[in-house]
């Protein structure tokens, strides 16, 4: 290659003639004569860097909103885009394969990661809006001041109901790298579910656990091998409803005090 470049630059030999003399590809010789440098390694990508950047931006935004895409959904989106712009590509039916997905994730590993997302029902996702949270804290502050609870932390309780599914399907989705607790908004949680209500006060005293199963009848074997002081119940949805909440107040909150 060096000899061919010297022939062109120093001896006045044409690039075409030098390429024939040294059995070198003409375009390759042109690049060396003109000192063209390519920072990219390997063949050009099907999508430009700007196009891939837009896809990454869309993926991270969707994930922030709770609508993550998995690998196959990303493949379908790219297929639809390639068909719309009618761009020549090496994919069968314009559908990128596993190798393209792997390369895409490697190129954008500083911005994307694959995580298991927790299903979050739509109604609960909407309840986590900024305005809803601000309204909650306003009401909490008013309640504490109205009942003079600042000096009585043992009377301030917080409870949280967590749902558990017995047949969760594990699937990873693309989301923003470094995001904490990614969730996927779903219409509802329809699989077999049971919930556990945990409650404690500000000084760290815990009330007995309240376990609520999905069903119309509470079977005795559902109440075995659990925490010694746990209280059990059931509801059609598996979540706390008004009657279960009243039962919790009566048997967990009030009863121990008596």
Automatic annotation (TrEMBL):
Pfam families the UniProt entry points to: DDE_1
Molecular-function GO terms, alphabetical: nucleic acid binding
Domain of life (superkingdom): Eukaryota
Domain DDE-1: residue ranges: 192-252
Main localization, broad class: nucleus
Subcellular location: Nucleus
GO cellular component, one term: nucleus
SUPFAM superfamilies, A to Z: Homeodomain-like
Protein name: DDE-1 domain-containing protein
Protein's organism: Rhamnusium bicolor
